[in-house]
Amino acid sequence: RSCSFTGFSTVQSRKLVKSLSRSSVRSRMSLKPPKAYNSLQKGALVWDPQPLQVKKIFEALKKGLNEYLEAHQAELDYLSGRHKDTRRNSRLAFYYDLDKQIRSVERYIRKLEFHISKVEELYEAYCIQCRLRDGATNMKQAFSLSPSTKASRESLVELYRNVQECTEDMCFIEGALEVHLGEFHVKMKGLVGFARLCPGDQYEVFVRLGRQKWRLKGKIETDDSQTWDEEEKIFIPNLHEKFEIKVTELRGLATILVGVVTCDSISFFTTKPQAILVDITELGTIKLRLEVLW
């Protein structure tokens, strides 16, 4: 590729570099993240975009949102059918109550459609910045291999600036997209260990997602039931982080590590609650049961 650039005239090379120059995406798009994102990500901005991970999350998110849209559209069709049937012979109060439900579902469907369009807009902008960055990176490598001239050095400086701007814009869009991921409601369903769990045993479960943490303690009762000091926690999904789960056994003042595992959250973007069973030990002798609702 260096040979193709050495044959360029100074005017041609400068035109090629300037074709990648553009105003920052932040000045052209209204992507200001709300305070919730700023407080969550304070001091933790990722300056290394991950296009493949963002693509996976986007596809899972869009699929989940479309599932919600289809479910509410089916509910609207059902209510509309009942609305027509009750219009002829029904009490007035029931008719208006049904009409109120229909309007509520219609408003929610419009919100979902706007949500989907916003997510698609953000991802499209992200892909554009990714292609621009890749193009600028390839050109920078080609210019660095060509004979050093004043024009090539100026082009390298401009290309380096373009790569930096595209990287910053991609990180900014990742932050804006993260705001639209919703919430994960995680419920503790207990430990499964058969002979490994005995009455009186006490355990501590620590769940982390990025900067978010959930620490809860539980005890095995004499009737083999389990009591936990907390049963549910809300997590804000993160583009780059996975769930990290650590289980320790409490024995007096000592703690014994049972196991540490990581769990991807891509499969949680769905309308139905996801019951997950995580192997805490390598042999699976102790498992953790959780339920995740998006």
TrEMBL record:
<dbReference type="Pfam" id="PF15903">
    <property type="entry name" value="PL48"/>
</dbReference>
<dbReference type="InterPro" id="IPR031780">
    <property type="entry name" value="FAM65_N"/>
</dbReference>
<feature type="domain" description="FAM65 N-terminal">
    <location>
        <begin position="1"/>
        <end position="294"/>
    </location>
</feature>
<protein>
    <submittedName>
        <fullName>RIPR3 protein</fullName>
    </submittedName>
</protein>
<dbReference type="InterPro" id="IPR026136">
    <property type="entry name" value="RIPOR3"/>
</dbReference>
<comment type="similarity">
    <text>Belongs to the RIPOR family.</text>
</comment>
